[in-house]
Request: fold
Amino acid sequence: MINEVFRILVEVTKNIKGAKVENHKFCVSVHYRNVDENSWPIVAQFVYDILKDYSRLRITHGRKVLEIRPVIDWDKGKAVEFLLESLGFSCNLDVLPIYVGDDTTDEDAFK
Reply:
């Protein structure tokens, strides 16, 4: 489903200068940071229109980015916890996880 939405979004945004769509395997990011400000609503409308057909996906907002994610109880903070557990470091006091991010979508990882 993520791959399908990614392909659709790449196609519908290809004529919007500065729009960038990224497939992060578990989510799709639509960046509009380099899009002319007058075209921001057009990018957003494309995303919202496409997501109407995908009830199992939701949109989260970051700084000039729309992220399309599955409707599950999962975020970047839970991903960090999962990695620590998977690697056997969740109860190790000698391990300090370092997370680098600059967007509101990264806040769960910092918590």
Notes: The longest strand covers residues 57-62. The chain has a mean pLDDT of 93.
